[in-house]
Amino acid sequence: MTTHVGRARRRVARERDAVEDKRAAYDRFRSRLESIPAPDTAGTGGTLVSTGSTSTTRPVREAFAETVAPVCEERLVGELLAAELGEGIATALTTDGASPPLRRAIRSESDRRRAELDAMNRALDAEADSLDRADETVEAIREWLIAANETALSSCGFEALSERHARLEGFRADCEALVRDRQAHLRRTTGADGQAGVRHHDLRGYLYEGFPVDHPVLVTATRLDGLSEECQRAVRAHLVRRV
Fold first, then answer.
1. What domain range includes position 161?
2. Is residue 94 within 8 Å of 78, Cβ to Cβ?
3. For 124-172, what is each residue's pLDDT tens digit?
4. Nearest to 5 by CA among 173, 137, 122, 172
5. Which of 37, 62, 38, 41 lies closest to 52 in space, CA to CA?
6. Residue 178 three-state SS
7. Per residue in 45-54, pLDDT tens?
């Protein structure tokens, strides 16, 4: 049986792959930009748009379409340009020419997006670490509960019942510690080189949209704590009978 934590780990693994692919795509796009010859911009001044041939913007659009667009959601290239690099750049790339300021703006926005993706990567790494720690706790408790359920309490002696009660008390303490650790994690922000930051609470909302629960770790820990408490009550009832 897979827990909410297990499903969350798979979701994070897929998202990490997607972000890494997009970061690599921006690296390729940035390299392509540097290989595109600068247009003849005599008389264009400092404006984003020049009045040269469309050949000055077509290579940039093609580079974006062949590198970044394939790793984004399926939309028109113009829409993706606006979403990824901004409306101003997208509009300028549909005009008759590209100026040096436009090329600088594209490089700047590409670097900004790479910084954002670096921050997302680090935040996802931190989320994966948090889920790994949670999974260790959750699986240890879950496996013990399943195994213990195969032995009837009526067949256990006083010593065995006492040990079982103590083990369950330890599990409850583990669940409480897991909740505290997870809550502390969600309050943190992860950045990359001081250029961008991702709040873990916001990332959680994005990652687990569509999940049956909003907080997979907290819900799982709370449910396991409740199960451990129920088992403790049953064990105590048998202990009282043996006194």
1. 117-242
2. yes
3. 999 999 999 999 999 999 999 999 988 899 898 999 999 999 999 999 9
4. 137
5. 41
6. helix
7. 444 444 444 5
